[in-house]
């Protein structure tokens, strides 16, 4: 089923992003690509900006013109089919191969990110040791070479927070549970908590901890989630609709209906207000780190 007017725009947007990148890698202009495919330039623009649904056969034709690999062609053809009437659930290893990361493109295109996490440190803030422990726990039979590769990719993604030009603005609220769950052992946790203190002092990052004492708050019901917002055009209109992402054990949920995003915005604001302020959060991070050092 292709994305229609009532479906999620996320598959279309991500598909357009990948197809645009492939065209650029093939050193083809929009006009040249349109000529090869016998399409109009307007159609090419609609595809690359996620404005229109696509048939998998059209995706295959574009991938052939651009010289894409068989594996990537298969993934993009699957992406063309992945949509449902309400939100979009991307099941890992389903139509789209497991190694094809749909989320990363959204993260790279985002203009800002708000993230509530109740269980583990967000991937963008994980140290190498912490990431290694998390990935090994998630994929029990993973080999060392694959583990090294996955850890490296996770750490490399974090450069969007520290790049010289337009580092990504990030607001993150962490449940106190995240601090006190000993992932990887005491040494790993001391390093991880020290890293959180460091990044919380960067100008583009605001980090707060939701203490146990906060009691009930929206995050208790919602679970972990992220809200991604995208750049605006010259008229002040969003270039892409804000998107809520929630990661699951076997897949990821994407929501971009205005009403859904509004509900998560309200939930994040409630969580944020229930949190300690930035300075008090840093003090708690340092206190918990000392408790790991002391055993």
CATH class category label of the largest domain = Alpha Beta
For the largest beta-sheet, the strand count, sense and barrel status come to: 7 strands, mixed
- Put simply, the count of helices is 13
- Residue runs with pLDDT of under 50 for 5 or more positions: 1-6
Number of domains: 2
CATH architecture of the largest domain: 2-Layer Sandwich
Q: Please bin the fraction of helical residues.
A: 40-55%
Our measurement of the CA-to-CA distance between the termini, rounded to an integer number of angstroms, reads 54 Å
What is the string of SSEs from the N terminus onward? HHHHHEHEHHEHHEHEEEHH
Q: Taking Cα atoms only, what radius of gyration do you get, to the nearest Å?
A: 21 Å
Overall 3D form: globular
Helix/strand-derived class? alpha/beta
* Mean residue pLDDT: 89
CATH topology of the largest domain: Endonuclease, Chain A
Per DSSP E runs of 2 or more residues, the count of β-strands stands at 7
Overview of this structure, please?
This is Helix-turn-helix transcriptional regulator. Residues 19-72 form the HTH cro/C1-type domain. InterPro entries: Cro/C1-type_HTH (IPR001387), DUF5753 (IPR043917), Lambda_DNA-bd_dom_sf (IPR010982). It holds the Pfam family HTH_31. With 295 residues, this protein is α/β, with parallel strands linked by helices. It has 2 domains: 10-84, Orthogonal Bundle (434 Repressor (Amino-terminal Domain)); 103-294, 2-Layer Sandwich (Endonuclease, Chain A), CATH 3.30.870. The protein contains 13 helices and 7 strands. It has helices spanning 10-25, 30-37, 41-48, 56-66, 70-81, 103-109, 128-138, 144-157, 176-180, 186-200, 218-222, 258-274, 278-294, and strands spanning 88-91, 112-117, 170-175, 205-210, 225-229, 243-247, 251-255. A 7-stranded mixed β-sheet has the order 1-7-6-5-2-3-4, with helices on both faces. A hairpin with a 3-residue loop joins strand 6 (243-247) and strand 7. Helix 1 packs parallel to helix 4 and helix 1 packs antiparallel against helix 5 (70-81). The longest helix has 17 residues, at 258-274.
